[in-house]
Input
Amino acid sequence: MNRMTQWTLDPETRTTEPASLPKMRGENVNVFYGTKQALFDVNLAVPEHQVTALIGPSGCGKSTFLRCLNRMNDTIDIARVEGEITLDGRSIYDPKIDVVELRAQVGMVFQKPNPFPKSIFENVAYGPTIHGRASAKADLEQIVVDSLRKAGLYEEVKERLHEPGTGLSGGQQQRLCIARAIAVAPEVILMDEPCSALDPIATAKIEELIDELRENFTIVIVTHSMQQAARVSQRTAFFHLGVLVEEGPTSEIFTSPNDKRTQDYVTGRFG
Output
């Protein structure tokens, strides 16, 4: 589904806001690990049905911010998140929010493929089963097939659905993990350097897949590769030392950034 979105650009700060409500938004987000502050007053809107890339040097806070979007930082005892993060205008830190349901709505694909030690079929069927998305076996089978198709994997594995997912190649395992995320019908998919452990051919397949998936999902990707960010995203946010330095349309961030730190990073002067 394509939705036309109008953007207004403030040339001083490159703060761009969608004319309609963004899919997700972080406002004045601060994150602490014990006494160490990892993020400082981050404000970022994530538009619907686009790919937003988070870039910056190692340790800059981009993965920390990504993990805030589905409350993965809750799993770290010493982590504390301040500020507000919303999904469709509702705070995801509202006490009434079911975190399990939130993580179904905002799925995550990690840096290293992590299929369950189960069959290919069971990997994809697991989420829909525990969330009650399939009322009959035929419904579950259809969800699995559809998810594998959307992940561009079905034709490669259709004859071995009941073989272990761990027997697939690295690139196939990552697409299996994407199929597993899709199977619970999320609205947002978070990807934390999903290609860093893959070879160039597998990386190209994942990048093609990301472009196809944004028709139906909102995607936020952390990537260490500026070339990848330029290829797959419509918007880019540059983080440095826990601060969101600037964000905007990807083409502008890479060709005419406002901040010298962004300019230095994208031209390879540091990072």
In short: Residues 1-19 have pLDDT under 50 and may be disordered.
